[in-house]
Each structure stands twice: as C-alpha cells, then as structure tokens.
Amino acid sequence: MPARPSRRHLLAAALTLSASTLAGCGVRLEDDAPDIPFVPKREPIPGESALLAVPGALESGDAQHSSQRADLLRTALRGARVPDAVLAGATAPTSPAEVAAAFEASVRECGPGLLRLVGQLTATERIVSPVGAKAALWTPPGTGAWSAGAVATTALDATRATMYALEVVAGQTTGAVAKAALTASRELAALSIRQTTAAGDAVQPLPLGYVRPDDVTGAAGREWVVGSFIRLQAAYAGCFGRLDSDRDAALEVTHWMATAEQVSRSHFPQTLPTLYGDGKHQP
C-alpha cells in the first residue's frame, strides 16, 4: 500500500498549483494590484520615484530634443519592468529646485544599468535648460581624490587630448581662431587640474604625442577641434558605467560635461545633439 503524502507535501503542491494557475491567467505584478494570496506586489526599481519625475521635467521645458530624451528614459524604464500605468501616472516637478533634485537623485539612486543614460540626461539638462544654469541648485564639484581614481584618469586623458588639438590649431592659425583656441585651452586647463586631483595616485604622465590630421588650418582646423570636443563628451559619458560605487563622482562627471560644453559653445560650437556624450554627431 503506497504511503500517504504528508500535509507539508500537499500544501507545497497546492501553492505550486495556485501560482501556476495565476500565471496562466495573466496576473501581473503591479503597484496597485489587489492582495492575492501567494502573489507579491511589485517592488519599485532603485530610484524609481526620482526617475519617474524626469520625463515630465524634460517635457515641461522647451529645449530642442526634450521629448526624445523623455522617450529614451521611458523606454529604458519599460525595459526595467516599470509598468506603463506607473509611467503614465507620473507627475512633473513644479519648481526648478525640484527638477534639479529629481535629476540628481536619479543619478544617485538608479540601478547600474541605467546610470550612463541617466548621467547623460542630467548632463544634457545642465547644458540646455535654464535650470542647468542655476549653479546653486546643483551639487558642486568635489575637491578630493575619487575612490575610482582610474576613471578620473580616463577623463583627464581625454581633456589633455582636446587641449592638444586647441594648442596645435592656435599655433598653426592666426587672428580670431588662434585667440579662441588659446582661450579654450586655458579654460580646459582649469578642468584638467581638478581631474588630476580626482585621479589621485592613478594619474598618468602626459603622453608623448597624439594623432593629428595633416591640415589643421582654417575650416579643417576648426572641424578637428569641434570633433575633439565631441569626443571629449563621449569619453566623459563613458565614465558613468564605471562609477556605480561612487555616485558623487558620477554627479561630478555631469558637471565636467557641462563645463566642457560651455568652453566649446563660446569658441567652437557643436550641433545640439539629442544626448550629450553619444558621439554620434561628431564630424
């Protein structure tokens, strides 16, 4: 005579059957789902409250490509399993301080897979929006060495390469272009000093040379410099993926991106991209 199953086995089988039946009926985990036995409610993703405020903040402004930026984040949030109903119910911040706080909290709190996108969105907001120009609303850059000093070294190397391009153009041209190149190089030098401090013991000596085009005069020289600034932004954006453990440093990178664009805008303006740091619009 076969042994009778124990009560524990019967209960386990019942739980398995209930969960399978609910899954087959299409029950999904939603924030507002009713309490169904054995079906947990959905847990918000890291930084979800702040992230949900960002699309509305983008669309409440009138900056070029703002709706495309909002769509990029919404798509990423859907990929992270945030329900459409939650996305649709999100509201926009109502003051400049709340906008800045939402972007910065997103950088500090989002999951690693979203950090590069959120960092680029924050840097772009600081560049293109009136809120970005309000320095008092944003966390100031640091003063000490980063725990991820090698990442700061990557940024420093890119800054030095752009300074080299500017100095070569200044030496090979005359007049307004030469003056603008020298001025921009000096402005980037201040940024490179901070990056050297951030790199700490990981800082590397200056390279012996850089690749340069044969023609660096006139329009060709200007195009090379503009491309150097675009590549600089892409190098900075590439740092985000390595700063998951140091979100203060990630926020500082957004400041570096905004600073580099301000130098470029004054002397060697770029075409406004959808997202700064994408590198897709470089000549």
Automatic annotation (TrEMBL):
This is Uncharacterized protein. It comes from Janibacter limosus.
